[in-house]
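Lecture 7 notes: from sequence to structure.

We start with a single chain of 356 residues. Read the sequence below before looking at the structure.
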Amino acid sequence: MKNHPAMQTDYSVLDEALEILKPYGPEFRGGLSNHAPMASEALCALGRADVVIEWVNEYRKHLQPRPTPHDRIARADWRAALGDQARVADWMAFFGEEIEERGWQEVLKLWVPRFAPGLIAAATHGAIRTGHAARGLAHGDTPARRYELAQGLGYWAATFTRLPEHEAGAGTAALRPSQAISRVTIFPMDQRHNFGLITEALSQLDSFAPFADAANLVDTAGDPSEFISDLTATFARAYLANAKNVLGAIVFIHSMTGPSALRPVLPYLPPDATALALRYAWQAAAALFCTYGIRPAPEGEIEAGGIDREELIDRAVECGDEHAIKFTEVCLREHALNPRPEYLAAARHATGVLKQ
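Now the structure, written as tokens:
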């Protein structure tokens, strides 16, 4: 193991990293999400501020310029622009104004419930970027971090899309995610097509009738932290069962990082909005499982002996992959709240399969 500072959060370089990344847009290479702001914040949360700037300078070589706003979005007619990716820069400018006028906490309280039904947007990257930005702001309110929150919310708004669902009613099953996953019908292998982007593959669910039942399988009325813990532990096991190659690893990483991104924003949401967000966090994870799953999550105990936090952080940094960094941070964050071995086993696996 390499020597490095004690494992604790260190946000001393986050603003510098965000300023370096300011000229770049939310996507590149025809629809890939820009992970640099998210991974930078994750490295700070892992106590590895020492590697952030070098990592950012290497990653940004692949990025494309940030688009320019054209038409102002008015508060009264925001719905007309929702889900219009061509207006992503307009949305980011809109949230820049919203945050300065209302304050970032009030913006989260108002807008996360509006966007929660589209948590799957951009394969959950809008929600993930928002979550990382919110946590950065909780560690220190700065212009760079407020700007980053505007980017995350703007990206979520521009890519907003909903998955098919039946209205909650008599068919609601009221299960925990760990119970509900066995009731999710996996998209038939012989009907799957090859797609370049996760979002394209998810579009198959629009014509796959069994998936519309998925959102109603779970009960979100209890403790939200316990719900997220059960959900992420369930999908850590699904990851271990299905992440057999790079694509599988990336897909099932998002089945955990998407839902876990809600944790930093939950303190700003009222109870009814929290329950709504949890419903769609589950639905998003279930959609990824339905679309890409090959086998159900394994039963029984997961073996993860001899893995510790410092080793996993070192492995993520040495791997260098943005997904491995973010996933390791999420697995360690979730493990701290719910010390189950599947989190550690999943993180160790990801740093191996995604190693550059």
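The chain has two domains: 14-158, 177-353. Keep this in mind for problem set 3.
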